[in-house]
Amino acid sequence: MTTDRYTGFVSSGFGKTLSRRLGLPQPVELRRFEPEQPLLDGPIGLWGNDQPLDVVTDLIRAEGIEDASDGDARLGAIVYDACGASDPASLDVFPARIGPALKRLRPSGRVVVLGRPPESIDDPARAAAQRALEGVVRSIGKELRAGATANLVLVEPGAEARAESALRFLLSSRSAYVDGQVVRVGPAVLPSTDWQKPLQGKVAVVTGAARGIGAAIADVLARDGATVVAVDVPAAGEALAAVANRVGGTALQVDVTAPDAGRRIADHAHGRHGGLDVMIHNAGITRDKLLVNTDVERWNSVLAVNLESQLRIDDVLLAEGGLADGGRVVCLSSTSGLAGNRGQANYAASKAGVVGMVQARARQVAERGITYNAVAPGFIETVLTARIPLATREVGRRINSLSQGGLPVDVAETVAWFAQPGSAGVTGQVLRVCGQSQLGA
Ligand code: NAD
């Protein structure tokens, strides 16, 4: 599916030539996930300061991926295990090996670098080398063309085997719009994962599921095996029922700000489906105005839906009879929330607040094996963004490394990855799905 008309135009012969001559952005159609698709679109180039971690070599073997580190074959992915980089001098693998290999990367190719969390390293030279990885990887993300991405996985010592789900996600086309990001993997009890149907047997609730990103999340969770409870306001009842039917789940009409929303969600999931394993807080609204023109009611309405409802619902879900041990909670944040945005002080407060809440909850429930994470979408093609005036919309779309907006499915794939049993080592994090938007944070 083409994300927008301009991307379709520059994919044609004439459009490509014209846009190149004029020096315009060159977005390409991103490779996106389809069932039965191989993990990589081509062989892998693999380098390391030491012997690459077993989790990498085992994955390559399990997926039957050809190692083409030597030679000049086009590559589906480049993996550099830099966990052994002990001082700045060891980083010259980047110009010596990785730089030349980038020329061999195929469209929508992947660069994944592995390192260690620098903040837990005492030796200054090693900490410097490890922190440097973030700068290089974010720069590579900005240099790559043709839909290729670069991301960094920081693996805590002892958590190596837990990195498989992050590697699989970032190497695959499921992470089409995740670029220039850092994912941390910590120790955790690792349940076994069926990588084809990771959510088989799980019951998942998605709020705001009647349309847009929430509907896409319902689709992807169901595709991955979950039984989905689709939640939305009564006014969206018809669209909600259509989504629930499409994914073979059930619909629950409830306003997430209602005082009994948590109880009703828990009762429905347990009563109709026998449990609750995955909670996705996606419902959200905007009420944009400059802060000087924002009255308390407008402020409160956004905080109530986007943040306070999640706190109140989860107080119920984390008590007896709610979310199962080993459960997963994923909350929708936003890059414009994280970076701050003119006219969106209320929205930004709610979306940055989500990150604070997620980090505190992650610590609170770690012992129960429950993970809490946030996804921060950038510019996603939905009915909301389609209403933005053309010029502003075009800027929003193009100011990222992939020169295009993401699709709801890109956010949904990231949510589904967090929800997997194999992502047990990933908690308290916020992952941007923004094509490496230049909106900072
Ligand atoms: P959308 O408006 O298309 O869908 C939101 C859904 O939430 C709607 O179906 C709506 O009825 C429902 N909802 C709103 N208030 C509710 C309530 N009180 N109770 C229950 N349901 C309620 O929005 P979207 O673009 O799909 O966004 C989904 C989430 O992603 C939101 O949290 C949004 O802030 C976030 N987000 C979107 C973008 C983007 O580019 N579209 C970017 C960053 C973050």
Automatic annotation (TrEMBL):
Q: Does the keyword Transcription apply?
A: no
Q: Which InterPro entries match?
A: KR_dom, NAD(P)-bd_dom_sf, SDR_fam
On whether Oxidoreductase is a keyword of this UniProt record, the answer is: yes
Task: Provide the protein name.
Answer: 3-oxoacyl-ACP reductase
Where does the Ketoreductase domain lie?
Answer: 202-378
The record's section on PANTHER family has: 3-OXOACYL-[ACYL-CARRIER-PROTEIN] REDUCTASE [NADH], SHORT-CHAIN DEHYDROGENASES/REDUCTASES FAMILY MEMBER
Keyword field? Oxidoreductase
- Identify the species of origin: Angustibacter luteus
**Top EC class, one word:** oxidoreductase
